[in-house]
Amino acid sequence: MQQFVLFVLFFAGFSHALKSCETCLGSGYHYCADSKLCNTPACVNTIKEVLNCPHAPNATYDDNEARTKWLPLFGAGATNAKMAQKCFDNNWPTLKVSKRFLVNCSDPSPILPPTECAMITAVDVSQKILVMTFRATLGNTQLGEEVLNFLVAKKQFFDVGKVFEFFYDAYLALWRAGLEQEIRSLKYRYPDYELWVTGHSLGASLASVGASWVVKAGIFNPDSVKVFTAGQPRTGDYNYALWHQNTFAYSFRVVHHHDIVPHVPLQNAPVDHDRMYHHRTEVWYNNDMSVGSSYQICPEADGLYCVNQQVDLSWNDHTHYFNTDLNVYGDLGCPKK
Ligand SMILES: *[C@@H]1O[C@H](CO)[C@@H](O)[C@H](O)[C@H]1NC(C)=O
Ligand SMILES: *[C@@H]1O[C@H](CO)[C@@H](O)[C@H](O)[C@H]1NC(C)=O
Description:
- Residues 131-268 form the Fungal lipase-type domain.
- It comes from Caenorhabditis elegans.
- Residues 1-17 form the signal peptide.
- This is Fungal lipase-type domain-containing protein.
- By secondary structure, the protein is an alpha/beta fold.
- The protein has two domains: 2-47, no CATH class; 55-325, 3-Layer(aba) Sandwich (Rossmann fold), CATH 3.40.50.
- It is built from nine helices and 15 strands.
- It has helices at 2-17, 21-26, 63-77, 81-91, 139-150, 165-189, 202-216, 238-247, 316-319, and strands spanning 31-32, 37-38, 46-47, 96-104, 116-124, 129-134, 154-156, 162-164, 194-200, 225-230, 251-256, 282-285, 296-297, 320-321, 324-325.
- The protein is globular and about 60 Å long.
- One 2-acetamido-2-deoxy-beta-D-glucopyranose is lined by residues 58, 246-249.
């Protein structure tokens, strides 16, 4: 009997320690990523937010597909319609440009001139895929504008949290310039196709917002949407990030080595950003990303993991993904590797 009581006491204590990360945090404790135990006194990597509870992604990351399909999509989004088609012909010949959209994307700013945002839609009827690919920041002016906007404002994104106003307004400008009509008619014409949404840098944030937008607008079911970004800045707040990762089974956020942009804006910056967060799943290449390079599938959304552990940050790492200079790749027609 005594033994039984001891056993029950022991088991009660232990089952507490063995709680899942979500249950542990829900009970007001912290979760220890190292020991995988709830509320252990000594812990190196403590998790305090459900967003960061360690999980494997629901989809499988494919490094070869990243190089042969998503990389040419980054290139195509960054150039004009003619060279975008060349990007496809060189790498993914069944994919055809549908439309290109170019708009003034910044708020009227008393300080800086208007800047332009661009994106391309495409269709592959043999593989049943629709594409939205967004262009990155063009030049230093636009980056300056973005950073200024980071310090200014956030906007409510439907009922799921907030995103930076710059990204919201830029996406809305594209949407109103005909993207909405284009997406609705593509969906009407090809109802059972997947939608692949992608971009690099600013384009990555627009891809995150765009994929979320077509789902919140009721046009696409998230199960048929794939999100794949590179060098994405923090785009939305905690609620947005949590909703995004609870909604999209396939969402990968690739980060190259010490790329500075995924650190922007800093989570612990002196200015209050309402703490903006990344959503899952970061794929971190701690190398030059040449063919055969290793990578980590990061178990936390935006914890002290992977690129967040780096302090020596690099702009050059931001412009080079998969060992390719993204400043020129699209304009060159995405030469096959
Ligand atoms: C953006 O605004 C400028 C200045 O008002 C104008 O010249 C330019 O044509 C606009 N660009 C687009 C894509 O509408
Ligand atoms: C991912 O998988 C988990 C566990 O099977 C499931 O509970 C969750 O709903 C899935 N998330 C998405 C976005 O499909």
